[in-house]
């Protein structure tokens, strides 16, 4: 097990290198020059040459990537071309916001999906099942930003600002800088709507999947055996059926991470949250190469680490799956 | 290959009481296609989905006739009009008729949704066919490339592609969005088809084809492709739904087709600023996106049940 995790952690390196390299090369082919934006009115050929030299923008793309990588190994994520602020500290300030958003939305998704799928599968073709499947159908068809807008209309505007429509409050202990609003209740108020907006779609996908695999598992012979030997319904459902039915669901949860990161961009934009999503989209649109690299790096890391966690979850769900 | 235990037998044979004679069907069994169409006709969800999709195609096709006004003509005297007889869905900040904008906006959603999936299909399916059938180095090269695209969170890739393409208005702008979404979705079809090809190419009838000297392209197109059509059709229909959401999301982030071309995602983005005073302006485009996606999802679900009853 330990060697497996070690090997997987080593495999993270080429994947992250690949993603950051592709993003690096792609961003350099984006039309428009950040140096022009940076210098603004002070733009002269001389100044531009100086700035390009300072940021190594005059070198070939692969050499630039090498320089970026060399600094990265020493813990230097570079500095924003436009604001001059170090990228790493910006990423660290924004990471807790997005992390909380994603974890909470996944939690909400599971909280809805697991009961809905179990009820749907156990009472197949009853009104409870139809309600669950219809709700799931609606959930997969509704874009995150529309859920967000509906929530805004109800909880921010109709209920007179019961939940704030934008901004952020950090949880105590997660604020990475000296200046940020800290409050448990404030944090909950700020994160609730975005997390629901992001979680609803995931809940729907997971419900459909889990219901289908529950239906399959529940008809299998070992479940019949478990029932025949006199086990009550609860251990049959939770210990025997659910754990096995969860395996494909966990796989899909891992695959959903790509969508979650995109969803975070959308939801953070809608609710004006200072998270990684807004950081990334702003950086990409402003062509702030260094910030985009930082965003790509943290995204790639999150992507591979979460997929590793997914693979490790299998061993818990099905002890026959062993990694050596 | 997996081998079924010989002693296992089929379930229905076991359930037959002793001495019972199984009825032998005299009529020729219906072809899989007729059978699938019959199941499709009986599925309420598929029919509702088909109805929504057909209605939308009608609206998009006859947008010029159906829309009461021009989607881009602004009427400064009637900005932010509430829904009324003159303006059934009200007007936006430039006094443009929302109903006409929604009707014309359906064109972008449908065009991008359908054509991006078709484009991904036309690139991805041949890649999957060739990779799966040839195996070896070709397979490894193609699939590594596909894995590379899949390794990206799809929105990150689509956003960067759109920034590289630089979003514009009109047909060219629509084609850029289509291209960006298609690139992101190619690996889905390549992997799907490759998987099917790997199992189909080991079948006896393919071996028979080869023994008879049938050329590889004919084997691929005439014998292998038809046998993996069912999952391709289902994935395509459901893929259109996803593509429409991705298009709306890109537009919402300001990276889709640019104004003045009417697009639902852009209208939603532009009107969110006025959501507190004129909520319907963002509600209607959102509802339009939702209903469209729902239509394709319902139809796709129905198709899957009809084409592959085992998956139900």
Can you give a write-up of this model?
The complex is a heterodimer of chains A (324) and B (312). With 324 residues, chain A is mainly alpha-helical. Chain A has helices at 2-28, 34-39, 45-54, 61-73, 87-122, 127-141, 144-158, 184-218, 221-228, 233-270, 276-286, 289-317. The longest helix of chain A has 38 residues, at 233-270. The model of chain A has no long low-confidence stretch (mean pLDDT 86). With 312 residues, chain B is an all-alpha fold. Helix content of chain B is 68%, strand content 0%. Chain B contains 13 helices and no strands. Chain B has helices spanning 11-15, 32-42, 44-61, 63-66, 98-134, 136-150, 154-165, 170-200, 204-211, 216-224, 229-252, 264-272, 280-307. Chain B is elongated and about 75 Å long. Chain B starts with 10 loop residues before the first helix and ends in a 5-residue tail after the last helix. Chains A and B meet through helix 1, helix 6, helix 7, helix 10 and helix 11 of A and helix 7, helix 11 and helix 13 of B.
Give a short overview.
Chain A contains 12 helices and no strands. With 324 residues, chain A is mostly helical. Chain B is an all-alpha fold.
> Into which percentage range does the β-strand content of chain B fall?
under 5%
Name the overall outline of chain B: elongated
How does the helix and strand content of chain A classify structurally?
A: mainly alpha
Query: What is the H/E string of chain B?
Result: HHHHHHHHHHHHH
Contiguous uncertain segments of 5+ residues of chain B: 1-14
Shape of chain A: globular
Low-confidence stretches of chain A: none
What tags apply to this protein structure?
heterodimer; A: 324 residues; mainly alpha; 12 helices; globular; B: 312 residues
Question: What does the secondary structure layout of this molecule look like, with pairings?
Answer:
The complex is a heterodimer of chains A (324) and B (312).
Chain A: H1 2-28, H2 34-39, H3 45-54, H4 61-73, H5 87-122, H6 127-141, H7 144-158, H8 184-218, H9 221-228, H10 233-270, H11 276-286, H12 289-317
Helix pairs in contact in A: 1-12, 5-6, 5-8, 5-10, 6-8, 7-8, 7-10, 8-10, 9-10, 10-11, 10-12, 11-12
Chain B: H1 11-15, H2 32-42, H3 44-61, H4 63-66, H5 98-134, H6 136-150, H7 154-165, H8 170-200, H9 204-211, H10 216-224, H11 229-252, H12 264-272, H13 280-307
């Amino acid at each position: 097990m330990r060697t497996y995790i070690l090997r997987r952690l080593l495999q993270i390196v080429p994947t992250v290198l690949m993603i950051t390299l592709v993003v690096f090369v792609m961003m350099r082919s984006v039309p428009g020059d950040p140096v022009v934006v940076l210098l603004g009115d002070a733009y002269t050929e001389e100044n531009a040459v100086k700035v390009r030299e300072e940021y190594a923008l005059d070198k070939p793309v692969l050499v630039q990537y090498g320089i970026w990588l060399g600094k990265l190994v020493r813990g230097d994520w570079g500095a924003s071309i436009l604001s001059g602020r170090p990228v790493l500290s910006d990423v660290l300030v924004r990471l807790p916001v997005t992390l909380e958003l994603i974890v909470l939305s996944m939690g909400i998704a599971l909280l809805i999906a697991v009961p809905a799928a179990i009820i749907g599968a156990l009472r197949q073709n009853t009104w409870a099942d139809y309600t669950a499947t219809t709700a799931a159908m609606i959930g997969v068809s509704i874009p995150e930003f529309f859920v967000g807008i509906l929530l805004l209309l109800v909880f921010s505007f109709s209920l007179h600002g019961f939940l704030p429509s934008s901004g952020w409050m950090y949880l105590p202990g997660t604020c990475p800088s000296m200046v940020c609003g800290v409050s448990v209740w404030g944090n909950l108020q700020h994160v609730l709507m975005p997390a629901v907006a992001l979680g609803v779609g995931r809940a729907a996908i997971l419900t459909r999947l889990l219901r289908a695999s529950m239906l399959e598992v529940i008809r299998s012979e070992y479940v019949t055996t478990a029932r025949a030997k006199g086990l009550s319904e609860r251990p049959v459902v939770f210990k025997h059926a659910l754990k096995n039915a969860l395996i494909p669901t966990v796989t899909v949860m891992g695959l959903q991470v790509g969508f979650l990161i995109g969803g975070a961009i959308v939801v953070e934009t809608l609710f004006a949250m200072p998270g990684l999503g807004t950081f990334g989209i702003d950086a990409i649109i402003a062509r702030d190469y260094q910030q985009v690299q930082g965003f790509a790096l943290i995204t790639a890391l999150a992507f591979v680490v979460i997929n590793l966690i997914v693979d490790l979850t299998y061993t818990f769900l099905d002890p026959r799956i062993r990694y050596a | 290959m997996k081998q079924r235990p010989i002693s296992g037998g089929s379930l229905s044979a076991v359930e037959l009481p002793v001495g019972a004679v199984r009825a032998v069907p005299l009529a020729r069994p219906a072809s899989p296609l007729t059978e699938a169409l019959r199941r499709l006709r009986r599925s309420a969800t598929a029919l509702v989905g088909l109805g929504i999709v057909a209605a939308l195609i009608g609206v998009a096709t006859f947008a010029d006739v159906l829309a009461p006004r021009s989607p881009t003509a602004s009427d400064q005297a009637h900005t932010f009009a509430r829904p009324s007889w003159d303006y059934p869905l009200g007007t936006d900040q430039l006094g443009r008729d929302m109903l006409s904008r929604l009707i014309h906006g359906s064109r972008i959603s449908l065009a991008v949704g359908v054509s991006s999936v078709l484009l991904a299909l036309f690139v991805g399916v041949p890649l999957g066919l060739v990779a799966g059938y040839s195996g070896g180095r070709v397979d490894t090269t193609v699939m590594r490339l596909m894995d590379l695209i899949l390794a990206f969170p799809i929105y990150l890739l689509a956003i960067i592609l759109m920034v590289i393409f630089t979003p514009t208005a009109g047909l060219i702008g629509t084609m850029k969005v289509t291209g960006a979404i298609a690139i992101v979705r190619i690996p889905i079809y390549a992997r799907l088809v490759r998987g099917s090809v790997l199992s189909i190419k080991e079948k006896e009838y393919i071996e028979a084809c080869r023994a008879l000297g049938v050329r590889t392209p004919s084997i691929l197109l005439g014998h292998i492709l038809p046998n993996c059509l069912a999952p391709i059709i289902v994935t395509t229909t459901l893929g259109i739904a996803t593509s429409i959401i991705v298009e709306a999301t890109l537009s919402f982030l300001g990276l889709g087709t640019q104004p003045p071309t009417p697009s639902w995602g852009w209208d939603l983005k532009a009107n969110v600023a006025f959501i507190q005073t004129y909520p319907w302006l963002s509600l209607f485009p959102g509802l339009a996106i939702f209903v469209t996606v729902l239509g394709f999802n319902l139809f796709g679900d129905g198709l899957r049940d009809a084409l592959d009853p085992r998956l139900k």
